[in-house]
Amino acid sequence: MCTILAIGKGIWESQEGSAFAAFLPPPDGNNPPFSAFLTFWSYVIILNTVVPISLYVSVEIIRLGNSYYIDWDRMMYHAPTNTPAQARTTTLNEELGQIKYIFSDKTGTLTQNIMTFNKCSINGKSYGDLLDFAGHSIEITEKTAKVDFSWNHLADPKFSFHDPSLVEAVRQGSKEAQNFFRLLALCHTVMPEELNDGGINYQAQSPDEGALVTAARNFGFVFRARTPESITAVEMGEEITYDLLAVLDFNNVRKRMSVIVRSPEGKLTLYCKGADTLIFERLHPSCSKLMEVTTEHLNEYAGEGLRTLALAYKELDEDYFNSWKKRHHEASTAMEDRDEKLDAIYEEIEKDLQLLGASAVEDKLQDGVPQTIEQLSKADIKIWVLTGDKQETAENIGYSCNMLREEMKEVFIVAGNTREEVAEELRTARKKMKPDSSDEPPFHKSGFLGKKSEVVEDETVESEYGLVINGHSLAFALQEDLQLEFLRMACMCTAVICCRVTPLQKAQVVELVKKRKKAVTLAIGDGANDVSMIKAAHIGVGISGQEGMQAVLSSDYSFAQFRYLQRLLLVHGRWSYLRMCKFLRYFFYKNFTFTFVHFWYGFFCGFSAQTVYDEWFITLYNLVYTALPVLGMALFDQDVDHRWSFRCPELYTPGQLNLYFSKRAFLRCMMHSCYSSLILFFIPYAAIHGTVRDDGKDIADYQSFALLAQTCLLVAVNMQLGLDTTYWTAVNQFFLWGSMSVYFAVTFTMYSNGMFLIFTSTFPFVGVARNSLNQPNVWLTILLTSILCVLPVLAYRFLYMQLRPTINDKVRYKVRQDKGPPPDAPRRFRPRRISTRRSGYAFSHSRGYGDLVTSGRFLLRPMKSRTALFSRSASSGLTLSEESPQIFRPIAEEPIA
Amino acid sequence: MKKQKTETLNRPDNTAFTQQRLPAWQPMLSAGIVIPGFLIIGLAFIGIGVALFVTSQNIQVLERDYTGVEQNSDNNCFQCLNRTNCVCAVQFNLTQQIEGPVFFYYGLSNYFQNHRKYGVSRDDYQLSGDTSYFTEPDEDCIPYRYDSSDRPIVPCGSKANSLFNDTFRLYRLVGGQKKQVPFDGKGIAWWTDYNLKYRNPTLVDGSLAKAFNGTVKPVNWPKPVYELDTSDPSNNGFLNQDFLVWMRRAALPGFRKLYRRISEGEYADGLPTGNYSLEIDYNYPVHAFGGSKKVFFSNVSWMGGKNQFLGIAYLVVGSLCIFMSLVMLIVYAKYRFADEDS
I need a surface site. Which of A37, A245, A396, A654 has the fewest CB within 10 A? Predict the structure, then answer.
């Protein structure tokens, strides 16, 4: 623009300026190129109002305001932990409205990391569901009455169970029920810890085991103490010590564990618990009927996402046991193939079992996690779970929190151990999803020269797929030559779960997506192992809670519960984005318009860099007259309120595509302001041309024209603001009308006698306001220009809304139709999966503590083993809570040496 | 109670502002508002447009170009084109009386009074009668700040220097007799300019001329500022009405400025029909830069001088509005999205 004007100046100067010199001698001699050069810089000064400082200031204020809204939000305040949400940065709010990928940790983020004994099936009867009189199950909420365990003074007060019939069964001496809990009290590798006040604290290898032992404790079978050779339990108030003859430990292949105990009466019993499929293979044929019923129950439990175990026992006779014991000893002291031999020995005795029932432990998801994930996926946000857990656990959580669904056409599992295997698995998966996809990844073509950028385009597939990938496969998939294949394949899937990944891999996955996809990424986690991922993503969110502060400290936003994420994104993020875009569009509009008028005037003032407006107006335009209304809009505007934002998560999608402030939107804004400036210059020009006041005096003078043009401009941009604002609070009204009145007040003051007498040359516009604003044709001009600026926009928007309504229009229309607040979304019952898929069994997935328990080493060096536990848990960022025995530390990964 | 307080210490305040629940009015561009709105605006605009147009039509304007670039039958200013101190005359015949009060304007075109350099080339302090600026005019006045012998120019600057200096006398030709039409030059400038913005320096010994001691007249002027109107002290010096009118610089390169009013005696009702001759002291050169000089006789209305544009613009915009409201009505009836279930 400056260049055009400078060239214009050069031409003008050479053609007319020299002739005009009679009245306006050029001070720098008659040198068109030079004066063109000077004009260029003059116009640089005049036209730099396109991007004024106030833009930056306003942007910062808006960001700050929106961050405060997050801090202030009561709906993101977690009362039990007294934690409000916290925006730890102010610069990322609008990116919250553009998230395309979420990377989430599992433990502590999706789940509470608390296991609770939830249901069980004993001898073909299922307990744990509450039924009303008609036999329908009642949803269990916080308010549901809990079973009273006060008869059992050893009961853990934190344990809660809602079905009173089970307690009755146990107390009435049902043999099966008692046997069920006896098994739970005996068959485990938990360490008890007597507390000073007589209570017991359990140290369990896996939280599942702890939950089961705690359940047994509450139902009257209290595990009290263990030595290498014995287990002491209090059974219905009666202390009994069993001889522990053997522990048939858990491992990954066996997926079960057994203990062989001798009761004080001398009865030998084998108690076994394990994955149902394996137990069922080893049952005595007489149990087949019970097995069917139990299987039904198990399916039901699995459908609810519970972790199940089948329980069985077998009475042994002394002779057989002794001979077995001998062979067992041989096997356990064998120098070669000890494990195989032991497994064979175990296998031998664990058969012809009598089925007792099944237990169901809930890996408690945080509140509202499935709903949140559903909402987010409706908003077209892809969620990747990156977890250190085993595949089964991760998969199970994936199902229970609604990420993986039964309706999915296929869930691919990539678990190859070599590069070739992984590559093959990825390729076949991709071909299955999209048979016609080319092997060459579709790179995003950048504008210039069609050069290939690094960004991979999205590919769409018709059905929904899931992907579960293992840590070691992921290591191959992240290699230079496979990562694109992996990325393409993973992005075709609706849900991606990466299990057994290291913190470094988490970060690598995030980096990969960030680099190769043109999308905003968010990582959410709670522990120290998530820090790398949180730092790698565009936005990091820390869950402040159980696992210390590292994640929070390196995050951009923090809150206490995963479910707040949907509010952060769908409400705050969306609004922030919307507001920022509206603000920027409007701000550029008003400044472009302002500036373009100078441009047009350039053609009529000999390109002399004469400003159209009064200098004071130029100074105050951005600072006073238009600063507050637009701020008001950018701080208060909302298209629909938060309830509707939740009800229509689709509203989020425009943000992901950056529709509101893309290059196109910017161009449109430029065109719009170009049009407005033409109106704002030429209408006053034509209206004032050759005319005079109603008393014949001059009104076509520069100062009156300046006043007219600036008033037109201000009215027009304020009307445009009114059109852009969808949410008129009292503050908006006040700002808008206030700014207008301030404008007139300031104008009249500055053009008044007093100001001129005091500062003569500072306010040369004396009397202009009085002389021209009392003219009807001035006001008619103002009316005409502002209407002409606004009406086309109005018509365009109206027609566009009718012909091609955006999602916003639809929702707003619906809101209008409905009036009043939207009804709360119908409360969803936990989706019941009718599935034959057995969910993960309730074991941690490493070798058990059997050796340790029976060797007695823990007794010889108790302190050391305890400190080992502590240091391990401390290193994984756990905090120990002595008061809550239900929180067990997962000491999972490597077996204790 | 106290415990509960500390437990919820961090709970954010529950106010409409912090929770973003401020009561608000949420207008929407619904058909029920937009289409009638356009219609009403359209009708209103057409109404205003008609009023403006009719008013503008009723304003009478007589316009004559006297630059003299081309030889013309109704004036002999061609002879003056390249001469100074030349007198020429424009003859015209009024077939219809111009209703009074009649205003007489001169107009210049292609004249860049709005050039920035031109506009700033003045000294507001000087012009408000501050004599301390008489010895040292503002730098913006360069090159009309000091004359060749370094004496300060008052009033300084290009703007004052280029004061329009053609003068006009109007004669009515009645039966071969030239009868001068009286001009009224009082109060043709803005009241604020005359009373506030411009002031003469305090008289020295009762003489305005002495107040300008030590200064020289602008280069192009034939006489100093204190001799602009020696007959009327209230119209002399910086307060000379012609000077004030000139100093109110025009916004656009083509402009007209009020020269005199014709409102006295028998001309109070307007200029009667008949033949007229306008004698012009042709001094002001505009030919060099392709400008032109014109004179206008015009009366005014409530909306000021003759300007067809506003009326026509209102009519056009009004019709467009009605047209658009029809288009929108059709589109709405045919395509409205509300029916399709979203």
Answer: A37
Distances (CA, A) of A265 to A178, A268, A316: 17, 9, 14
Q: What angle do CA A323, A329, A330 make, to 5 degrees?
A: 95
Q: Return the structure tokens found at A359.
A: 């237990």
B12 → closest Cβ in A77, A611, A636: A77
Largest separation between any pair of C-alpha atoms in chain A: 132
Rg of chain A taking only CA atoms, in angstroms: 37
Q: Give residue A226's identity as a one-letter amino acid code.
A: R
Best B45, B115, B263, B341 residue to mutate vs chain A (most A CBs within 10 Å): B115
| CA triple B216-B220-B222, angle to 5 deg | 75
- Start-to-end CA span in chain A (Å): 76
Place of tokens 């080893």: A282
Residues A786 and A1: their CA atoms lie apart, in Å, by 25
Residue of A nearest to B315 (CA): A784
Residues whose CB is less than 8 angstroms from the CB of residue B181 and which lie 6 or more positions away in sequence, other chains included: B170, B171, B172, B262, B267, B271, B276
Q: Taking a C-beta distance cutoff of 8 angstroms, is the pair A645, A651 a contact?
A: yes
A759: closest chain B residue by CA: B125
One-letter amino acid of A712: C
Contact assignment for B303 to A776 by CB distance below 8 Å: yes
Helices marked H in B65-180 — which ranges?
116-120, 124-127, 132-135, 157-161
Contact A702, B251 (CB under 8 A): yes
Q: How many angstroms separate the CA atoms of A371 and A369, rounded? A: 5
pLDDT band for position A147 (cuts 50, 70, 90): confident
Q: How far is B10 from chain A (nearest CA, A)?
A: 6
Q: Pick out chain B residues at pLDDT < 50.
A: 1-4, 339-342
* pLDDT of A442: 73
A693 burial level (CB within 10 Å; 0-12, 13-18, 19+):
buried
Q: Is A791 within 8 Å of B41 when comparing Cβ atoms?
A: yes
For A62-81, what is each residue's pLDDT tens digit?
A: 999 999 999 998 888 888 88
Cβ-based neighbours of A848, under 8 Å, separated by 6 or more: A189, A205, A247, A249, A250, A251, A257
Mean pLDDT computed over A113-131: 82
HEC letters along A107-128: CCCCEEEEEEEEEEEECCEEEC
Q: Which chain B residues have a beta carbon less than 8 Å from that of A791? A: 38, 41, 317, 321, 324
Going from the C-alpha of A855 to that of each of A229, A252, A269, A728, A860, the distances in angstroms are 9, 21, 21, 75, 10
Contact A363, A397 (CB under 8 A): yes
- DSSP 8-state code for residue B94: E
How far is residue B338's CA from residue B342's CA, in Å, rounded to a whole number? 8
* Gap between the Cα atoms of B207 and A758, Å rounded: 27
- Of A321, A344, A208, the closest CA to residue A270 belongs to A321
Q: Per-residue pLDDT tens for A346-375?
A: 888 888 888 888 888 877 778 888 888 888
> A447, A418, A414, A442: which is closest to A428 by C-alpha?
A414
Provide the 8-state DSSP code for A824: P
Nearest-angstrom CA–CA distance, A722 and A713 = 14
Q: Taking a C-beta distance cutoff of 8 angstroms, is the pair A276, A330 a contact?
A: no
Q: Would the CB atoms of A24 and B27 count as touching at under 8 Å?
A: no
Picking from A640, A654, A639, the residue whose alpha carbon sits closest to that of residue A822 is A640
What amino acid is encoded at A19 in this protein? Answer: A
- Dist. CA B147–CA A695, nearest whole Å: 39
How high is the ipTM of this complex? 0.92
